[in-house]
Amino acid sequence: GAGVSQSPRYKVAKRGQDVALRCDPISGHVSLFWYQQALGQGPEFLTYFQNEAQLDKSGLPSDRFFAERPEGSVSTLKIQRTQQEDSAVYLCASSTQPPGLAIEVPKFFGPGTRLTVL
Amino acid sequence: KNEVEQSPQNLTAQEGEFITINCSYSVGISALHWLQQHPGGGIVSLFMLSSGKKKHGRLIATINIQEKHSSLHITASHPRDSAVYICAVRRGAQKLVFGQGTRLTINP
């Protein structure tokens, strides 16, 4: 496809369950971002990859959150032992160049995965 | 206090009205973005500004660096403009800090 895709689009998990959210960025995009968007709020930064390197994970709310991008393309955000406060839309975004080389930041957002933890 | 504040939080207007959405920020930035988020979560980047003014169709974005303020204007608004409009500022090399968004509803 032409855009960033995410799967699943919707996920319902029982509290304590582990979940894995997938992001397929636009082919060739170097930068990949994960954001968490709570209901009625703006997105909040979670983590950033440049190719396979996770350069910033300062936004991950706890050590239950883990992200990887082993081959520099597809990325997975994993949440262990989910809690109700993890319920949110998780957005992935990608862009062509590392942010340091240009003032470009993510223009291409995926549709998000809506996670509901019961 | 949030680093990025938007106003109003909700705005309802009639088709054809001129719309203004405001964004104020409290930190130094290198760029400001206006984003549009449609129901279902899809986000589209509208503008990236570091100074002055940009125009694209019926959309106009302005920024005043000294006053730490930006506005997004929509002329001749249309029901298809109904969405959440989000202001985001760029700090550092890669982080965007987002406002809470303004929910715009344009009634026919």
Descriptive terms for the model:
heterodimer; A: 118 residues; mainly beta; seven-stranded mixed sheet; four-stranded antiparallel sheet; 11 strands; B: mainly beta; six-stranded mixed sheet
Task: Give your account of this protein's structure.
The complex is a heterodimer of chains A (118) and B (108). Chain A has 118 residues and is an all-beta fold. Chain A has strands at 5-7, 10-13, 19-24, 31-37, 44-50, 53-56, 65-68, 75-79, 88-95, 108-109, 113-117. In chain A, the strands form two sheets. In chain A, strands 2, 4, 5, 6, 9, 10 and 11 form a seven-stranded mixed β-sheet that branches. In chain A, strands 1-3-8-7 form a four-stranded antiparallel β-sheet, with no helix packed on it. Chain A is globular. Helix content of chain B is 0%, strand content 61%. Chain B contains no helices and eleven strands. Chain B has strands at 4-7, 10-14, 19-25, 31-37, 43-49, 52-56, 59-64, 69-74, 83-91, 95-98, 102-107. In chain B, the strands form two sheets. In chain B, strands 2, 4, 5, 9, 10 and 11 form a six-stranded mixed β-sheet that branches. A five-stranded antiparallel β-sheet of chain B has the order 1-3-8-7-6, with no helix packed on it.
